[in-house]
Amino acid sequence: MSEVTRIMGIDPGLRRCGWGIIESSGNRLGFVACGTLTPDVAQTLAQRLADLHAGLSAVIGEYRPEEAAVEETFVNQGARSALQLGQARGVALMTPAALGLPVGEYAANLVKKSVVGTGHADKEQVQLMVRTLLPGASFKGADAADALAIAICHAHHRAHRRLVVGA
What we know:
Structural class: alpha/beta
Largest sheet: 5 strands, mixed
Low-confidence stretches: 163-167
Number of strands: 5
Radius of gyration: 15 Å
Strand order of the largest sheet: 3-2-1-4-5
Number of helices: 5
Shape: globular
Strand content: 15-25%
């Protein structure tokens, strides 16, 4: 039997940052937990980023993932929004790395293709496939479902890398 690896997926966002924890053993996947961090929008940007860091750190401390994966973000809402989202993504990348976890990065289209089979799937299709691939998965909202999808994508690509490298 393959070794079990616990993976954390992170869907970065300044208003809503989704997180999901799965276990991967060979081609078997299991749901562990998921949720959404929602920093108070009335706080300063610096405090909201600090809250994201604290929240992600607490999740890592509680569930002890061995690897993490973060979605590469795509925005077309303007420079200010893109900059703020980039800062939240920086926290999402830095927090697990600072806690010693290897971190993978995946484009949104690759996540959708890995989970649904097409890179242009909509949110409902992603949620349906996450529920199919992770029986017992319970999530409220698209952010947590997306984070689980990111973790699933990482698990699939991690297994492929092992086959290619022969590790």
